[in-house]
Amino acid sequence: MATLTASKKPSQAILEEYCSSNSNTTSGTTSPSSLESPTAEIDKDPLAQQKGVQLPYPFLPTCLAKHDSHFIERRARQFPADLKLPLLPPESACAVIDAQDKDTPDSWVTRDSRLVRLTGKHPFNAEARIRDLYTAGFITPTNLFFVRNHGAVPKVDFERAEKWELKVHGLCANPTTFTLANLRTRFRVVTLPITLVCAGNRRKEQNVVAKSLGFSWGAGGVSTALFTGVYLADLLEYVRPTKGAKHVVFEGSDDLPNGPYGTSQLLSWARNKSKGMMLAWAMNGLPLEPDHGFPLRLVVPSQIGGRSVKWLARIELSPIESQHHLHFHDNKVLPTTLTAEQARAEKHWWYDPRYLIRELSVNSAIAYPNHDEILDTSLHAPGSTYALRGYAYAGGGRRITRVEITLDEGSSWRLAQITYFEDAFREVEEEDFGVDPIYGVLGTNEQGENCFCWSFWECEATMEELKGAGSIMVRAMDESLAVQPRDMYWNPTGMMNNWWFKVCIHDLGDGQLRFEHPTMAGTQPGGWMQRLKDQGLDPAYPRFAKGEDAKAPTVLEVSRPAALTIVMTNPDVKRTISREELESQEGKEKAWFVVNGEVYEGLGFLEKHPGGAPSIQLVAGEDATDDFLAIHSPAAKQQLADFHIGTLVSSPSSPPSTSEKETDDLGPGGTFLHAKKWKKIELIKLGVVSHNAKIFRFALDHDEQALGLPTGMHVYVRIRRRGEGEGEIVQRAYTPLSDAQNTKGFLDFLIKIYRPCPEFPLGGRMSVEFDRLVVGDEIEVKGPVGHFEWLGHRTAQIHGHSMPIDEIGFVCGGSGVTPILQVVRAIFNETSSEDAEIPDVWVLDVNRNVDDILCREDFERLDEVHGSGRLKMHHSLTGKDVPNDWKYSTGRPSEEMLRAHLPAPGENKLVCICGPTTMEQTVKTLLSKIGWDLEKQIVLF
Ligand SMILES: Nc1nc2c(c(=O)[nH]1)N[C@H]1C(S)=C(S)[C@@H](COP(=O)(O)O)O[C@H]1N2
Ligand SMILES: [Mo]
After folding, report:
1. Are both 752 and 806 inside the same structural domain?
2. Which of 777, 775, 781 is nearest to 685 (CA)?
3. Is residue 583 part of a domain?
4. Which domain range does residue 921 map to?
5. Strand locations in 149-285, DSSP E?
6. Closest Cα to residue 746, out of 709, 790, 787, 786?
7. Known catalytic residue: 331?
8. Which of 196, 236, 177, 174 is closest to 3 using CA atoms?
9. Same-domain status, 350 and 371
10. Where would you tag: which of 78, 415, 470, 907 has the fewest CB atoms within 10 A of its CB?
11. Quick one: 523 and 651 in the same domain?
12. How far apart (Å, rounded) are the C-alpha atoms in residues 644 and 621?
């Protein structure tokens, strides 16, 4: 990542600052050609060498290609006519930037104005009108292909694309970083037609029933393209996953508030070529457009679009699923019993693996007749028919085996004809297609009977039938006999909506019929659902039967839980309580606390409280409004009324105590930390370093404010637990990763996440809480704490006594490296002054696998810039996957290792240890054996 030429984006920049070592982990087993320039590989490209073929180099998306007119049309290479494959649509693009994109970060991306924007100007989320989509045919022209961007499009120009690196690492024997040219030349190039569908397709229908958490897709969140690239399975075979690898984690390079977009696949699925997962650089025979992931994306057929990571930069073989924010907080179908507000407030639902969406579900929609289409039956001869048409798709490679139409709301059905254009590709013989310079080979052989594309259906209805009907409804069935339901399964994210697609017919008289679709995409008005709702009817249970219109329609009872109005007081409670009473001995003993000006008694609930008694005792006699409201579910809030004992009244003698933030606000000159008071800090940025390490950036009070943390000291961090054990406070000392002396306005923590596992069922409780934080969340810090301080000028202070230091050794493990980095950085920073004298520094860093080593490059850089070899850095790996070219130690710290890689014991020498407790204890024992004075020369951080 460090080699990318584009301007650094914040989240990437955070990672680069600390973790660019990751980009160099290409191990020795990589073939040497990866070091050559990518252009050299293009020259060797067997495809490029075929004579007489014009390759689209520079391989640029239409959006970035040079052009002289305001309108560009490029046509991809068509397949030979005798293969009888569907024609590729012309790709056209307007060369002028849409006015709506002008003042956005996407002001360099050209877009087709026919796309309907669903989320205002930015980010860009758009779909084609269903009629445009359907008439464009089996293969959707790229410019009409739906777009789902969570943020700004990463700006990738030709230069950056040429140097694009796909880093593949983690639990594999041959971790490798690939350029695009590497992919093209090392693996077989394949092409497959694939339909992508956003899990939110048809969400507008759900949003009319009750607003979900997502924006309003119409039925156009689906499109099909020919994707060209290499099989993910081939790449996995090349890097050789090792024991323990269960998931393949993918990360894009977009810059989103909670870190880049990322998600994962089960390794067993990813390895299976018949599932068709590809790393693709081309779409419809031309380079991917920026909106679709230029220069490289993952394409996962038959699963929801959200799994097809765009702008793909990193793949990690991991023992656990993706830990990316959007892997958990997107693409879920949560139970219908939850309201959107509950889902937003109660985080644990999002971590329940049962609610993850993988494969698409069976779905269909109607394109003919269109919304507001008018059919004048009087112009048609009696007995003539209208062709109802639309699309149908299913997931998991399953074929659509049935599409049925009803004109009487499900009393009777008729079968539609289904056309599977995808079969044309399947029927082409491998030899007949050969190896195309652009498309490579057709992947349909490996695909077997799996279906990756939508099908089109058609069904005739006579004019008379349509005149006599109140509606047209369609449902499809797939080969597992799953069938679309009549009723909507409303859910908080509004995903996977697949109830029958229902079009209402209005008889306008004189033989004229007007058709009305359920909704119009985005904020466009129209559709029978909103119309019914406006009439006070429930759009989830419509009745269209002809003739029934005249009857007064019954208002159906809404079956969804209504948003709760929460009453947290007991109307019978009339007592008033003064602040003195609240803060009195009695108040403390009975655990009185205040929420919204009302006083509650916590005593009777101490034992039952899921967060344990201390969480209530901690706020005894205090105002707990913020904390209470922030961490409790609506259900818990409702319970509060039972504990209501009175209303707080303020007396003139006791001014309400001011909040911590105000009393501590020292202004830009003062430092942030307060030794006695907890101060809130807000998470403003989050970066994923690897499957078990993340960087969290928190804002201080002011941009120019320094933290106020002496070198070598720590801060206490406390977080209130959520989900299980809600409300309980977990607290631990941490050292920031950011340079505490020179960083202003924010601080970064690098947290190694210890998730629950069979050996440690609770995981690292603090790190688990960190893991759940999202941008905007607050935690609290207090400090500084610690008994060690580096004073500079070869002097340390230990328990208040200063001590001269000639040589200093550090032994660390995991994120124990961060306090050590603080001290080592401060030591080497002293060398910028002329007469600096610094001690010799030894660091021994013990980790399980190479990928677990944190801040490796920070140390290397310090050594390069300041140290002239005075930093003696050594590593040891305790895990089994030791790279072939590993030049350091293996195994847990031994006496021999400590002798070799730490200073010899003596006067003016010191060893600091920071890591997991068991490591600290072992090292301490060994050091005392070697002759170190445990009392005076060993510091445990
Ligand atoms: N890096 C990245 N990949 C991404 C997304 C994103 O926002 N960032 N959106 C996902 C979602 S939710 C969908 S539906 C598909 C949409 O792909 P498209 O925009 O090419 O149609 O991309 C997926 N891949
Ligand atoms: Mo999506």
Report:
1. no
2. 775
3. yes
4. 789-940
5. 166-170, 176-178, 189-197, 222-231, 247-252, 262-266, 278-283
6. 709
7. yes
8. 177
9. no
10. 907
11. no
12. 14
Q: Please state, in angstroms and rounded to a whole number, the distance separating the CA atoms of residues 923 and 884.
A: 27
Instruction: Please give the backbone phi and psi of residue 768, each rounded to the nearest 5 degrees, phi first.
Output: -65, -40
* Mean pLDDT of the chain, nearest integer: 85
Q: Omega before 784 cis (within 30°)?
A: yes
Pairwise CA distance, residues 501 & 475, whole Å? 7
Position 914 pLDDT exceeds 70: yes
How many whole angstroms from 201 Cα to the centroid of ligand 2? 8
- How many angstroms does the Cα of residue 150 sit away from the middle of ligand 2? 9
Q: Which CATH number goes with the domain that contains 240?
A: 3.90.420.10
Looking at the structure, do residues 584 and 596 belong to the same domain, yes or no? yes
Using 50, 70 and 90 to split pLDDT, how confident is the model at 740? confident
Q: Hey, which of 117, 310, 357 would you mutate to test ligand 1's pocket, going by the most ligand atoms within 8 Å of its Cβ?
A: 310
The per-residue DSSP string of 1-70 comes to: -TT--SPPPHHHHHHHHHHGGGGG---TTS-GGGGS-HHHHHHH-TTTTSTT----SS---TTTS--SSS
192 and 440 Cβ atoms separated by less than 8 Å: no
CA-based nearest residue to 332, from 454, 217, 478, 213: 213
Q: Residue 694 Cα, ligand 2 centroid: separation in angstroms?
A: 25
CATH number of 725's domain: 2.40.30.10
Question: What's the CA gap between 467 and 507, in Å, rounded?
Answer: 7
* CATH number reported for the structural domain that contains residue 646 in this entry: 3.10.120.10
What is the CATH classification number for the domain harbouring 432?
2.60.40.650
Distance CA 475, CA 415 (A): 10
In a domain, 307, yes or no: yes
Same domain, yes or no: 768 and 820: no
Distance CA 312, CA 183 (A): 13
Residue of 254, 330, 845, 881 with catalytic role? 330
Pair (632, 749) in one structural domain: no
pTM for the model stands at: 0.66
Helix (H/G/I), strand (E/B), else coil: 711? coil
Is there a single domain that holds both residue 864 and residue 931?
Answer: yes
Asked if residue 674 belongs to a domain, the reply is: no
The CA distance from 170 to 267, in Å, is 13
Claim to verify: residue 532 and residue 617 sit in the same structural domain: no
Clarify whether 198 is annotated catalytic.
yes
Task: Give 288-335 as a DSSP string.
Answer: PPGGGTTT-EEE-TTB-GGGS-SSEEEEEEESS----HHHHHSSB---
Strand order in the sheet with 166-170: 176-178, 166-170, 312-318, 247-252, 262-266
Strands 592-595 and 622-623: parallel
Could you read off the pLDDT of 520-553 as tens digits, one per residue? 999 999 999 999 999 999 999 999 977 554 333 3
Among 786, 813, 834, identify where a domain stops: 786
Two tokens at 698? Answer: 């928190």
DSSP, collapsed to helix, strand or coil, labels residue 456 as: strand
Output b/e per residue, 496-509; b: 16+ Cβ within 10 A. Answer: bbbbbbbbbbbbee
In a domain, 527, yes or no: yes
Q: Please identify which of the residues 182, 258, 331, 692 carries the catalytic annotation.
A: 331
- In the structure, which protein residues have their CB atom closer than 6 angstroms to any atom of ligand 1? 145-150, 196, 198, 252, 254, 261, 291-292, 305-306, 308-311
Structural domains counted in the chain: 5
Q: How far is the CA of 102 from the centre of ligand 2 (A)?
A: 25
- Ligand 1 atom closest to the CA of 253, numbered from 1: 1
Contacts of 68 (CB under 8 A, 6+ apart): none
Amino acid letter for position 671: T
pLDDT-derived band at 785, boundaries 50, 70, 90: confident
Nearest to 278 by CA among 189, 361, 198, 199: 189
Do residues 389 and 456 make contact, with C-beta atoms less than 8 angstroms apart?
Answer: yes
Q: pLDDT digits over 257-309, tens only?
A: 899 999 999 999 999 999 999 999 999 988 899 999 999 999 999 999 999 99
Contact call for residues 176 and 34 (beta carbons, < 8 A): yes
